Structure formats: structure tokens, C-alpha cells
Amino acid sequence: MFERLIESLGTISTRDDATQARNPETQLAAAILLYAVVPADHVYASAESAALHEGLRHIFRLPDDKCRKLVSRAMAQYSREPTLLAPATLLKHRLSLSFRQLILATARRIALADGELHNNELDVLARISSLLGLNIAESSQNRSA
Questions:
Q1: Rounded to 5°, angle at Cα 53 from 69 and 123
Q2: Domains of the chain as residue ranges with CATH
């Protein structure tokens, strides 16, 4: 009986994540968090930009044109208001733990895309992790992801 309950809760969470993955607000919030990693080292590396696009396409199953528009909107929003608190809070309250961990893992891939991990990138990753409500143990488990 408890196994069925646990399975049904997992299904509901998955369904909720799938619904949220199609939500434009959720997509923009994630894109803003992920975009923040790109300029963190003060170098706009094309590899990091490509990793950002690939990560968003993977997470949200977006075609290239929609992904480019999403990145443009995220870039504009982050330029106007370079805070991570609002988008991270939205994601923290809307997404499951595993979906938030996926976003953090994608942020790590973006930071490592140019082959170097800078201190500023580490700071942004730590801030994203904290704002998404991921503790150190959960975050370090996904470093290889």
C-alpha cells in the first residue's frame, strides 16, 4: 500500500515538473539562472554560450529558434536586474528537488564548458545552489552529473 502511495506521489511530481517545464515563466527563470553563469568569469566564451543553449534545449525540449529567443529574454532581464533571488525563488517553489538538481548540474556544465572553473563561477554556482534550496550534500552528489 505504501509503495503505491510513493509511486503515485512520484508520478504527480513528474507530471507537475512536466507542466512547469512548459510554463514560460519557469523557462525564463531557469534561463536567467543559467545565463548568470556565462558572464561570471568576465569572459563570454562561445563554449559556455553553446552549453547554455544546449542545456536549455535539453531541459525544456525547445527547438533552436525558441531557445534563442529564451536566451535573449534572459539576457535582457539579467542585464536590467542582475539578481538571482526572484528567479530562484520561483523555481524553488514550483519544481521538484530532482528538477532543481538538474538545473544546478546544467549550470555546472556551462561553467566548465570553457575548460576552466573560475572562482567567480564557483561563487555563482554556490549562490544558485543555495537559492534553489539545495544543501551542500545534495549539490556535491550532482557534481558528476
A1: 110
A2: 2-141 (1.10.3680.10)
